[in-house]
Amino acid sequence: MRLLYIDCCVSQRGADSRTLGLAGAFWDAFRAEHPEAAIETVRLEALDLKPLTPADLDRRDGQAKGGDFSGPDFRLARSFQQADKIVVAAPFWDLSFPAILRVYIEHISANGLTYHYESDGCHGDCRASRLIYLTTGGDFERPHSLGVLYWKQLAAMFGIPRFDYVFAGGLDVDPARAPEILEAAGERARRLARTF
Ligand SMILES: Cc1cc2nc3c(=O)[nH]c(=O)nc-3n(C[C@H](O)[C@H](O)[C@H](O)COP(=O)(O)O)c2cc1C
């Protein structure tokens, strides 16, 4: 079982990051059930990720044309494609998430590896059965909150059948209520972790 954790907990709060805390609630509950599980963590802040340039795209297309996805250009896409279950954690920034996560998405979106086209449109080629998106936001959750919607649609595009999320929202509306909101969100994350 390959578990992939995409850690995009970029925060001024450091170890007190609320997003990191939410992700911690999830993983602590998961590890309590599966102490032996190996988790591949991709910490986006530690990677030197750059947005794709036209030259990068040409190089990738050249390799993809020959069906060769074995090189470093596709390293992140390969690990995403091969994961059995995936967790993504990121704060709600500027109506979606930090830009580094969008850059990561550029790197994992590889036609012919993580998805492909047929006459009726795009089909996903990722192995994962589940993807969970964990996020915290200053404002309350809205039905059109883009971070969650974006990952819901990405999961569908990549062929991942089950999508779940936890949005701890409203944390900056009334800071006095933040601890109770985070506790409730942490409990939702722990519940998801027990069946993950
Ligand atoms: C750069 C930046 C952009 C933000 N943009 C939004 C936003 O668009 N909507 C929102 O509800 N909260 C926004 N927030 C508030 C954060 O989502 C909120 O404080 C979150 O809990 C931060 O998580 P952290 O403790 O892990 O850093 C933003 C915060 C920062 C620093």
Structure in a nutshell:
The chain is α/β, with parallel strands linked by helices.
Spans of 5+ residues with little confidence (pLDDT < 50)?
none
Question: From the alpha-carbon coordinates, what is the Rg to the nearest angstrom?
Answer: 17 Å
| Main pleated sheet | 5 strands, parallel
The total count of strands amounts to 7
Strand fraction? 15-25%
SS summary, helix count: 6
First-last Cα distance: 12 Å
Give the number of domains: 1
Which CATH top level class fits?
Answer: Alpha Beta
Which secondary-structure class do the elements indicate?
alpha/beta
- What global shape is seen? globular
**pLDDT averaged residue by residue:** 97
Spell out the helices and strands N to C: EHEHHEHEEEHEH
Q: In the CATH hierarchy, what is the superfamily?
A: Flavodoxin domain
Keywords:
196 residues, alpha/beta, 6 helices, 7 strands, 38% helix, globular, binds flavin mononucleotide
What does this protein look like?
This protein is of the alpha/beta class and 196 residues long. Helices cover 38% and strands 19% of the residues. It has helices at residues 18-33, 54-65, 75-82, 99-108, 146-157, 178-194; strands spanning 3-7, 39-43, 85-89, 115-118, 121-124, 130-136, 162-168. A five-stranded parallel beta sheet has the order 2-1-3-6-7, sandwiched between helices. Strands 4-5 form a two-stranded antiparallel sheet. Strand 4 and strand 5 form a beta hairpin.
